[in-house]
Amino acid sequence: MRLVEYRRVSSRGQVRDGYGLTVQAKDNRAFAKANGHRIVKVCSDDAVKGALPAQDRPGLQCALDAIAEGKADALLTGKLDRLARALTVQEAVLAQVWQMGGKVFTADAGEVLPDDPDDPMRTAIRQMMGVFAELDRRMVVKRLRDGQKAKAAAGKHATGLYPLGYHGAGKGRERDAVPFEPEQEAVRRIVQLRQDGKSYREIAAVLEAEGIKPRKAAHWSAMTIRQVWVRESTRS
């Protein structure tokens, strides 16, 4: 069977934690060889969160496109949580692959079987795995938030990821968000188009047509544009 391999790490830290892209690749190749499959395409997302939908993950969208275009028969990933760390995203991606006539395999557990009305436990167990993956992600976020609160209590600036159009400048307590000119073009264009009465989806289409790229995703989403507009309109 022709497989499209999907790998993902949500942060550089995962490389140090032992399940980086290289280790995932090794597991996936071993699974394919042991089961007589052939990896025909490799797609990956580096430092991309697993809670994002497929359209906001270039690597995952690449894998889905390979199945949709008939270039692969199944999607292979190291573990189910590499596919998604949010239950709704996991189920949406699985459903999309199955609707296209494809299969899904994980190197650690084999085929992820489609729902069967005669075997409700199959769906329940898969979804419980997704729930625990999402819980783990939320616990990580909570630890980060707690760390930021402790930093703020110590009189330091507590900032996480900087929003589109901004990056960190300064050191120690003086570090804070400042405009990042390479991304400010997109911010200014979003504000201008929104002030002209364009919808979020219309703005996304304009940005795509003008060749203005988002920070990481392959395409602009209406949600990202809304976040930029709400933030910038509040500033003014």
Structure write-up:
The chain folds into 2 domains: 2-111, Resolvase, N-terminal catalytic domain (Rossmann fold, 3-Layer(aba) Sandwich), CATH 3.40.50; 166-235, no CATH class. The longest helix is centred in the middle third of the chain and has 34 residues, at 120-153. It is 50% helix and 15% strand. The relative contact order is 0.10. It has 9 helices and 7 strands. With 236 residues, it is an alpha/beta fold. α7 (181-195) packs across α9. The radius of gyration is 20 Å and the shape is globular. The chain has a 5-stranded mixed β-sheet with strand order 2-1-3-4-5, with helices on both faces. The protein has a two-stranded antiparallel sheet with strand order 6-7.
Index terms:
236 residues; alpha/beta; Rossmann fold; five-stranded mixed sheet; two-stranded antiparallel sheet; 9 helices; globular
User: Tell me about the biggest sheet?
Assistant: 5 strands, mixed
CATH level-four homologous superfamily name of the largest domain: Resolvase, N-terminal catalytic domain
Architecture of the largest domain in CATH?
A: 3-Layer(aba) Sandwich
Average pLDDT number? 85
Which parts are unreliable, with pLDDT below 50 for 5 consecutive residues or more? 12-16
Strands in their spatial order, largest beta sheet: 2-1-3-4-5
